[in-house]
Amino acid sequence: MELRGFHRLLQGFMLLFLIGTCHARFVVEKNSLTVTSPEKIKGTRDSAIGNFGVPKYGGSMAGVLVYPKENQKACKSFDEFRISFKSKPGSLPTFVLVDRGDCLFALKVWNVQQAGASAVLVADDIEEALITMDTPEEGHSSVKYIENITIPSALIEKTFGDTLKKAISGGDRVNVNLDWREAVPHPDDRVEYELWTNSNDECGVKCDILMGFLKDFKGIAQVLEKGGYTQFTPHYITWYCPGAFTLSRQCKSQCINHGRYCAPDPEQDFSSGYEGKDVVIENLRQLCVFRVANETNRPWVWWDYVTDFQIRCPMKEKKYNKECADTVIRSLGLDDKKIKKCMGDPDADADNPVLKEEQEAQVGKGSRGDVTILPTLVVNNHQYRGKLAKGAVLKAICAGFEETTEPAVCLTSDVETNECLDNNGGCWQDKAANLTACKDTFRGRICKCPLANGVQFKGDGYSHCEPGGPGRCRINNGGCWHESRHGIAYSACLDEGDVKCKCPPGFKGDGVNSCQDIDECNEKKACQCPECSCKDTWGSYECTCSGDLLYIREHDTCISKTRTEVRSSWAAIWVILIGLAMAGGGTYLVYKYQLRSYMDSEIRAIMAQYMPLDSQAEVPNHLSDSNRA
Ligand SMILES: *[C@@H]1O[C@H](CO)[C@@H](O)[C@H](O)[C@H]1NC(C)=O
Ligand SMILES: *[C@@H]1O[C@H](CO)[C@@H](O)[C@H](O)[C@H]1NC(C)=O
Ligand SMILES: *[C@@H]1O[C@H](CO)[C@@H](O)[C@H](O)[C@H]1NC(C)=O
């Protein structure tokens, strides 16, 4: 029952139709299994993804590993042994290790799932390379429960299984992490995927699953395709009739183009109902529908065609034929002449280019093995493992996008968990400003400092983010000190330059946590002239002069309001000026130079107002022509 390496697919079908070689190339798809404790067996190994249940593509799961004392092969229900694997609320989920052998892989997983576990590890019973645990062949009673398996499963090598069992029986608590994040390559922002399908709708459970999947998945597939997120290609398997048998009755009824392209008889009864070649022809039509739709840049119309055809033209109602197909084609606005041309002549003893390409594509390339079973889904050239169901498949496709490029449909709660909701994903956040560095992606979360109000935050994203670059002071004052009192606001944030926070004039401090008012009066910073009287204010000071004097803030001094008297330092300048004037023409240039370098515009203004400059012969013109009262 366990299919190793080679998959037979011609169930009930004549073995005449072989795929060219008996050794089909089969690739075991893997995920990784990490033991996180105990210390002595820590490490990461590969495990093989089971081809049923729901692998958590793009995700990972941590759990405590249990090896049951009884029913170790899990072939019986654990109820009989009164064993339950349900984990207590808040504790890690239980993973169960079981042994290979005696019954179907799927049955083991089903029994463990029924007992409440979250994942199953199956230990191989012989030393060999990893194999894929497959679903049983059709007709087996197991198909009843197989669709209800929802937990992931993985096969591990015998020696690794022995190591785990030894640790568990030795009393260690074994914690493991199953990781599917790298199970699908995710190189860029577009996922290429292909479905190997079949138009046959009467092959039992497998066909029902496939038809159901097409219907369920159509909506999402079309959204992804229209948005340019994916490039989907449908494929169809055909077999060929060995040369010696091309003229036999069987080959004639199941093949077209003289034994080149064949499909099994739908009812496996050569004398009644539809024949294999009817299936080949409809498959060919569906391929051509895709090609013609793709040529007009509407590849998603294929999904409409196959689902409509399924509903309107079922074999059961004897409508599985060209007439019915043509009505569907026309209703979708497809060019039926082009489709007819693409299909060619099924009776010709010649290759059909479309089907020939399909047969060539069946052979594995690169990371993908040969396609020998239906249905087969390939995502980014890796074969999908797991059940063919909407949610499970969407996970695998979503896992194929480079982080942060996944479409919105991948970030809904039924596809992935938003890791930013739990403790903000361990990323930086500023709750007050409603800012976070956590960005949810399909494969987990990333911590990246946000862009808010046009200002890019900078930092490691985990413990630290702060506004950077121009405009940073707009956001929370750039993390610098700021305060306002009585309608006056001060901020220590500097928008430009390397220094981010610096206390404004009138304050001292680190600029980040605090800036304290400088008491200019007591610290003798200003307003210290004999006539001055000083009063400190927040961020500044007030200075008044006694008597008739006027305080000039820029020069921190008092001057007379009258025209004749100038006090303090102005008197000194006056004396110098007189001296220089008296020194005569020889010193004129020196005088002029000194005058200019001493006097800024304010001094000039003041002097023009308070000094009798117009009586001086040597008054420079530019001083005398302004502000004359
Ligand atoms: C599987 O699930 C379906 C729907 O939930 C249910 O009707 C059916 O009985 C289940 N089958 C088994 C074998 O548990
Ligand atoms: C569909 O069209 C795209 C681009 O137009 C092309 O790259 C791709 O090969 C086509 N697929 C098939 C199967 O013709
Ligand atoms: C915080 O921001 C997010 C999106 O940026 C928004 O959806 C949410 O409503 C905001 N919350 C508050 C409390 O402002």
TrEMBL record:
Keywords assigned: Calcium, Cytoplasmic vesicle, Disulfide bond, EGF-like domain, Glycoprotein, Golgi apparatus, Membrane, Protein transport, Repeat, Signal, Transmembrane, Transmembrane helix, Transport
Domain of life: Eukaryota
Statement: the UniProt record of this protein carries the keyword Membrane: yes
Topology of this chain in the membrane: Single-pass type I membrane protein
PROSITE patterns per record: EGF_CA (PS01187)
Gene3D superfamilies recorded: 3.50.30.30, Laminin
Record-annotated EGF-like calcium-binding domain positions: 517-559
InterPro entries: cEGF, EGF-like_Ca-bd_dom, EGF_Ca-bd_CS, PA_dom_sf, PA_domain, VSR_TRX
Cleavable signal peptide: 1-24
Segments crossing the lipid bilayer: 570-591
Major location (coarse): membrane
Coiled coil (residue ranges): none
Record localization: Cytoplasmic vesicle, Clathrin-coated vesicle membrane; Golgi apparatus membrane; Prevacuolar compartment membrane
Family indicated by similarity: Belongs to the VSR (BP-80) family.
Protein name: EGF-like calcium-binding domain-containing protein
Organism of origin: Hibiscus sabdariffa
Higher taxonomy: Eukaryota, Viridiplantae, Streptophyta, Embryophyta, Tracheophyta
